[in-house]
Amino acid sequence: MEVEQLPLDDIMALRLAVLRADTPSSSAHYAEDTDPTAVHLGIRQDGVVVACSTWIVRPYPPDLSTPAMQLKGMAVAQHLQSQGLGAVILAAGIQRAIAQSKTIVWARARDSAIAFYQRNGFSVVGDMFVDDATGMPHHLVMLDLATS
After folding, report:
1. Which of 53, 59, 67, 101 has its CA 20 to 30 Å from the CA of residue 140?
2. In terms of DSSP H, where are the helices of the chain?
3. What residue numbers bound the domain in which 106 lies?
4. 21: left (phi > 0), else alpha (psi -120 to 50), else beta?
5. Is 26 within 8 Å of 87 (Cβ atoms)?
6. Which CATH number fits the domain that encloses residue 65?
7. Spatial strand order in the sheet of 39-45
8. How does pLDDT run along the chain (148 residues), one tens digit per residue?
9. Helix (H, G, I), strand (E, B) or coil at 82
């Protein structure tokens, strides 16, 4: 499993299939996708993208002064979930954050994915909110790279 930097167009089909299934939204584009700091990571299997994530240099909402990187659009093909691909692509993004001297990695995580983030060292922050695009409950999650 090799994680590679991919063009946005290469990850959109997977994002749409996984992150917009059973939601009212038919778009998996984010405003941050074109941010100059955005990096799209992916894992291919037989030429098909089966895992992806997007990483953007963005302030951590509770503490806007902390050097931080946001994770967005993390998806693993449904037939490959719970096989370690998510942890692999997450670790690759965290290494990018460390290389760029960020001290926090954060995400707006679906409540259904909270256990995954906690297994990977993230803490849940604040109250639940409903994401507009999905209509699903979410929480902020964060990983303090200075203490992990």
Report:
1. 101
2. 8-19, 85-99, 114-119
3. 3-144
4. beta
5. no
6. 3.40.630.30
7. 3-5, 39-45, 48-57, 68-76, 104-110, 137-144, 123-130
8. 799 999 999 999 999 999 887 777 778 889 999 999 999 999 999 999 999 999 999 999 878 888 899 999 999 999 999 999 999 999 999 999 999 999 999 999 989 999 999 999 999 999 998 888 788 888 999 999 988 7
9. coil
